[in-house]
Amino acid sequence: DLARFDPVPPDLELTVRPAQELQVPVGAPADPDGLAYLIYTSGSTGRPKGVVVSHDGIGSLIATATERIGIDEDSRVVQFASVGFDVTVWDLVMSLCVGGRVVLVPAERRGPGPGPTDYIRAHRPPHTIPPPALVS
């Protein structure tokens, strides 16, 4: 249960600044090795650990999605995972970055029962990463 953890690790200092103070102009090219996002995983210890994902890492994800899975501008991806789960990044990046669509599952259709499978049948997405509970 991650609710017991402070969302900001004790050794991380956050500074909030007004947008006009930012030094990087909008539309500036991203450094391939630079931080794209930070996601927390429990790893093998059961304790949250921040994992840095670079811009180049996201580029590799897009390349994999387009070359190996066949995601393109006509693709629809059903998105089940919560934003705190790393699969969300996969769902969003692999479709939106190539002009595809993300079909968001309403919260009331994500729970146990026929809701999720009925939603998948109705939208007939060629791609989805369902939660393990749905698959079982």
Describe the structure.
There is one protein chain. The chain is of the alpha/beta class. The protein has a single domain, classed as 3-Layer(aba) Sandwich (Rossmann fold), CATH 3.40.50. It contains 4 helices and 5 strands. A 3-stranded parallel sheet has the order 4-3-5, covered by helices on one side. Helix 1 crosses helix 2. The chain is globular, with a radius of gyration of 18 Å. It starts with about 35 loop residues before the first strand and ends with a helix.
Along the chain, the helix and strand elements come as EEHEHEHEH
What count of helical segments does DSSP give?
4
Q: So what's the oligomer here?
A: single chain
Q: In percent, how much strand structure appears in the residues?
A: 15-25%
Major sheet: size, sense and barrel closure? 3 strands, parallel
Spatial ordering of strands, largest sheet: 4-3-5
Label the structural class: alpha/beta
In the CATH hierarchy, the architecture is 3-Layer(aba) Sandwich
Q: What is the top-level CATH class?
A: Alpha Beta
Radius of gyration computed on alpha carbons: 18 Å
Helix-strand blueprint:
Layout (H helix, E strand, L loop, with lengths): L34 E7 L7 E6 H15 L6 E4 L7 H10 L4 E4 L10 H9 L3 E2 L3 H4 L1
Parallel strand pairs: 3-4, 3-5
Antiparallel strand pairs: 1-2
Helix pairs in contact: 1-2
List descriptors.
two-stranded antiparallel ribbon, alpha/beta, 4 helices, 136 residues, Rossmann fold
Short description:
This protein is an alpha/beta fold and 136 residues long. Helices cover 28% and strands 17% of the residues. The strands form two sheets. Strands 4-3-5 form a three-stranded parallel sheet, covered by helices on one side. Strands 1-2 form a two-stranded antiparallel sheet.
